[in-house]
Design the sequence.
């Protein structure tokens, strides 16, 4: 079972149909699990664009995180009418991580779910992420 499958299975167990998508991304590839209706809305190019944007945002945050005294960085949350989007990088300089979306419109899922997902990824998944090999 891949990490993406493991995260999807855990989160769909917690949030059911309110889980829209889980994407495990790397610089040159990604793996995704989506609700069927969500997947039907997006092409592979659209998904790649989401991944590219997540990586660019991640890299732009790298220099800013140390400028503010807010504690360690965990992730980026975006709020839309229809969805919560949570970007959780493995680390800011590795260009890899998870992008998780939850239904917002017509859902009881709130920001507390993002906190729960962050805790799950940090405590259960992060220890399973292989270290980056130095070249």
Sequence:
């Amino acid at each position: 079972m891949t990490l993406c499958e493991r995260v999807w299975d855990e989160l769909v167990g917690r949030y059911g149909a309110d889980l829209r998508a889980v994407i495990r991304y790397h610089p040159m590839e990604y793996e995704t699990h989506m609700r069927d209706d969500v997947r039907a809305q997006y092409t592979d190019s659209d998904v790649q664009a989401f991944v590219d944007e997540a990586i660019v945002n991640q890299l732009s945050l790298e220099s800013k995180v140390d400028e503010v005294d807010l504690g360690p960085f965990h992730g980026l949350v975006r709020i839309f009418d229809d969805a919560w989007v949570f970007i959780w990088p493995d680390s800011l300089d590795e260009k890899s991580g998870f992008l998780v979306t939850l239904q917002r419109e017509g859902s009881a899922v709130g920001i507390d779910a993002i906190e729960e997902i962050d805790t799950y990824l940090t405590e259960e998944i992060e220890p399973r992420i292989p270290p980056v090999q130095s070249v």
Summary: The radius of gyration is 14 Å.
